[in-house]
Amino acid sequence: MDCAVSKSSFSFVSEDSFHPSLEFTLEIVAKTPDKFYMNRDHVAFNFKKANFDCLYTTLQVVDWSELEKFSDVNEACRLLYETLYNCFELSVPKLFCRKNHRTFPTWFNTDIINCLRRKSNMLKKYRRNKNMHFYEEFKKLRSLSKSLITTAYSQYIGHIENTISKGPKKFWSFVQAKKRNSRIPGVLYHNDNAISNSNDIVNSSAKFFKSVFSDMTLTSDSPTMMTNLNSFITVTEINEHEIIRVLKRSKDTLTAGCDGIPSFLLRDCAHIFCKPLVYIFNLILQTSTFPNIWKIAHVCPVFKTGDVTQIQNYRPISILCNFSKVFESIIYDRIYTSVKRFISPLQHGFVEKRSTVTNLACFTQFISDALDRKGQVDVIYMDFKLIIICYC
What we know:
Keywords: Nucleotidyltransferase, RNA-directed DNA polymerase, Transferase. The protein is mostly helical. Among the domains are: 51-179, no CATH class; 188-221 and 232-337, no CATH class. 44% of the residues lie in helices and 9% in strands. It contains 11 helices and 8 strands. It has a two-stranded antiparallel sheet. Strands 3-4 form a two-stranded antiparallel ribbon. It has a two-stranded antiparallel sheet with strand order 5-6. A hairpin with a 2-residue loop joins strand 5 and strand 6 (193-195). Residues 30-41 and 386-392 have low confidence and may be disordered.
């Protein structure tokens, strides 16, 4: 870094011949932030501590008639989210995901956290003042915090044991926490290069996922595809009953996409959300326009097979907005009955109540029957690439 020093013509204090005021000129090149930089100061709504009585009451009195003034889907979605976020501001506290934010075990409650903070403050006061009163308070709070933690932990373990058949996900989360294993290791390798910085891991994963993506956009030079013009499916107007039925199927979790709307809120407020969604969904069908905000997703790398430290062994999973999932579920229910007759009864992939297990069961039975007849079975393994064309 270059630095130029010269005599300054301006001085804040009086100067003498031995201490003249100097002027330093530095040339600093600012580092360009990473394209996929993770904003750790991101603010989100903490629904774990929400005042749900106030929230649900506020949502019930919202007048959604303003949506009918919009003919643009994106503007209608903007008003929808603006209204929801205003309701959240009144009853849902914000969660600040800061870099040095301390995290506590799942079984810690508010009483334990407050007790630990008071204990820490008393210890600091004792170290500063050496007053035995603060030390005695510190010892009392230390004993109390240990007792609260022991009780809360026992209750947590009992709850997991009693609900393991209904909620195995909580059990395995507890096991992973005990093993202290992260879903993504601290060091990953890409092209024999070790990556340990969190931002570099995010950027390298994004570059790898982009490199393996194939753009299947059809052009005039694309191969001719057989299309039966009489097989086009027309989706008629969506009604509130369909939306409520799908909303009621939402999971009882905090899973949320980029919009921050958790899935359990859709289920609990199904009769509230059906009114604005029925207008937006039908506007999508009328204008053949999908909202821009529902095209954005959180991409999460999921380990598939092989060495857990190799980036190429991960696959991207997109966490979509829950409202877009509702729309897709309704469209699926509409078109599935029309295309079901074209699906082979021998297909097991992407078919309800079928999987690789049912496929292997049928395949094994077929081989066993052939061997019992002293026959021969020839198997051909193929990998198909599906191209889906949407006409709007």
